[in-house]
Here is the input.
Amino acid sequence: MRPRAGWPAAIAVVVAIALTALAGRSSFGVSAPSPGLGSPASTVATAVGLHSTQPRGEDLSPAADVPAPSADAPPSVARQLPDPRPAAAEPRGEAAIAVLDPALGAWLAAFGGRVGVRVVDLAGNVAYGFNDDRAYITASSVKVAILVAILRRLEAAHREPTTHELALMTAMIERSNNDAATALYRTIGGGAGLRAFGRAIGLDGLTPPRPDFAWYWTRITPRAMARLLELLDAGRLVNARHSALALSLMRHQIASQRWGPGDTAPDGARVSMKTGHIYGPDGLMVANASGIVTANGHRWIVSVYTMDDPTFAAGKRIVNRVCAAVAALLG
Here is the structure.
């Protein structure tokens, strides 16, 4: 039997419809997200659905804290992105932590490589270190880098964050919500995006995680974390509006997140900070806290990282003791 003349065209239409349907699905069986940073398709469920297991040991706020997506976007505001390669750090004195506090230096020495510290006296233009070029697992402290990377991305697009994006940033920093962090980490491009961010701002000592989805196993040196905070505080990473936003979020962490620089600062101090703790790949606890402290006319940055702690409480005690000693000397 001869085929009807219209069959080839009908078959082509069916094939085209099938291909169009397939193109709208991702390889994981969910709708492919829009590339837009704050698009409705960029939901938390889509962002975290591939790796729903939460890191053990990290402070978590309930998944319900993560806001539902919103399509509203404020009018674009053309703002100039700061120089992507900030100028080299101004010359400053470098010394061992024992020069600042001999007793603290002797106490830290007993921990060997388990503890790393960087203190920057912004008023005195002197930095003190102990294992400050050694890399440690970040846990939630990498959320500061994710936050700044998102803000730079927005500025490159000449727009402000949507209500949804701002809610994600707030949840990630103030409540240390991991679902929000995962969503924003995916938005910046995961480990590759984090690596590109470090290169763009000239930050040595930031190493993206393996496996890539495990942002909480990113590694950073105390020197690099202190430098990130210094550049942010100086307004050299994002514009003045976004610098103020980031520092404000870091000042308003919930009480359970404000140990270290927050708990040990003098009364009335202004502290922008981020903490983190998690079980590492070896099953041992890591804990850290970093912050910018302003008190009694003095300003300093302190970054303390620990590893191989038997418990979170043990790591927290180390961090608190270092931060308290620094505050007593510089505050």
